[in-house]
Amino acid sequence: MPTAEDRPTPEPSAPASLMAALVALAATADDASIVDVHLARVARLAADTVAPVDYASITAWRGRGYTTVAASSDLARAVDQAQYADDAGPCLRSLEVATPVGVPDIAATMSWPGFHRAAHDLGLHVSLSIPLFAGSGAPVAVLNLYGRDAAGLAPLIRGVRTLYARQPPPSGDGPDGMDTGARQLLAGLVQAFTVRDTIQCAFGVLMARDHCSAAEAYRRLRLWAAEAGDSLADVAAALLDSAARPRSHPEN
Fold first, then answer.
1. Which of 115, 151, 214, 248 has the most CB atoms lying inside 10 A of its own CB?
2. Which residues of 17-38 are buried (b: 16+ CB within 10 A; e: fewer)?
3. How far from the centroid of its chain's Cα atoms is residue 203's Cα?
4. What is the pLDDT of residues 86-97, one digit of tens each?
C-alpha cells in the first residue's frame, strides 16, 4: 500500500490572481510536483500584472545547476542564462542569500558583466530578484523581474526590501507610487509570510511536544497534510488551534 508521501498532490484550481499564486506556493510542500505549476503562474502573472515589468522568470537550483523553471519570454531566459554562464548575477545572489536583490540602474552595475551585457543588449534598465519559499520556509526559487521603466519599478524594489527585512510594507496611495499590480505582488508576499509563520509555529509545537528536530517536524506535517488531502498551512493552523485549547482536568 503506498504511503501518503507516494500519493500525487491534487491539482488545485487555478489561482485567480498573483496574490493567490504566491499564497498557494507558500502553503505547498517543497517537493510536491505542483510547486512548478505555482512557480510558472507566478512568473506569468507577474509579467502580466505589474506594469513596469516587461519580462519575468523563475530561477531555481535543480540537479547540479541553476535553471529557468518558467519565463514569460525567451528574452528573460536569455538574461538568466547569461548569469548562469558567469555563475554570478542578481538572481543567483538572491537565491544564495535568501534576500531580494534589486538593480535600480543596470547601466551602472559592473559587478556582473554577463548580466550587464545581456540586459543592456535587450534595452533593460532595472531588475528585481525576489526569493520565493514553499512549505518548509526555505527558498525554493527566485522570481526575476526585468524592465525598462526604472522609475516605475523603484517603489516595488523599496517595498520588497522593507518586507523581507520584516518591517511594515508601504501602504496607501501616497508617495510610494506603486501601481496596482505591484501592490498585489507585495500583498501576496505579505500573505505568504503569514502562511510561513503559521507553518513555522507548528514546527515549534511539534519540536517542543515530541522532542524532534525541525526536519522531522516538517516531515510529519508533510505526511499529515498528504493523508488529509489538505495544504501544509491548513494542517499547521489546525495543530496550533488544538495546542491552544485549554485541557480539561479531572476533579480531585
1. 115
2. bbbbbbbbbbbbbbebebbbbb
3. 19
4. 999 999 999 999
